[in-house]
Amino acid sequence: MKKFYFLLVALVAVVMTSCVNFKTEATVDVKVLKDGKPVPGAVVYKFKDNGLGAGTTLYKSNASGSATADGGGIAHFDLKSPDDLDPSNVAGLEVSDEATFFFCTYDAEDVRSSLVTVGVKTGDKKNVTLEIEEIRNDE
User: When you count CB atoms within 10 A of the terminal residue's CB, does the N or C end of the chain come out lower?
Assistant: First the structure.
């Protein structure tokens, strides 16, 4: 009898996972600039707003992903389901999700040097600019 329940649970799990379409749901291209010029090789970190706002971006260890800017200073992010957005197709029904993301860079001491906030929904192809600010310690 236990074997039957185990097989039933396994079958239900397989059916449930086959009903959800996991894929790229949206894209965000982050153009990294410093003094108005592209910054190739800059590492941009991605954070999903979990209700705590930009406070989660103070530490890059909280990031859910990162990308390195190409020669034109653009870091490309594919926001995928289920990690970033909810699946757009569940059991044949179209679903739309919307979330807020933060994209940041950090300096050599791991202090956040730039931040941009982006609202993204299923199907979006966003382009945003992230301006790295020079921190000056005038004494």
Answer: C
8 Å CB contact between 102 and 57 = yes
Q: Alpha-carbon distance 139 to 20, whole Å?
A: 58
Phi first, then psi, for residue 130 (nearest 5°) are -120, 110
Widest Cα–Cα separation across the chain: 77
Q: What is the pTM of this model?
A: 0.76
- Produce one character per residue of 95-132: b if its CB has 16 or more CB atoms within 10 Å, e if not: bebebebbbbbbeeeeebbbbbebebebeeebeeebbb
- Residue keyed to tokens 């239900």: 12
Q: 95 and 88 in contact (C-beta within 8 Å)?
A: yes
Query: What is the full per-residue pLDDT of the chain (139 aa) written as tens digits?
Result: 666 555 555 555 555 554 445 567 899 999 999 999 999 999 999 999 988 889 899 999 999 999 999 999 999 999 988 888 877 665 566 666 789 999 999 999 999 999 999 999 888 999 999 999 876 655 4
In angstroms, what CA-CA distances link 74 with 35, 62, 70, 78, 88? 15, 22, 5, 13, 26
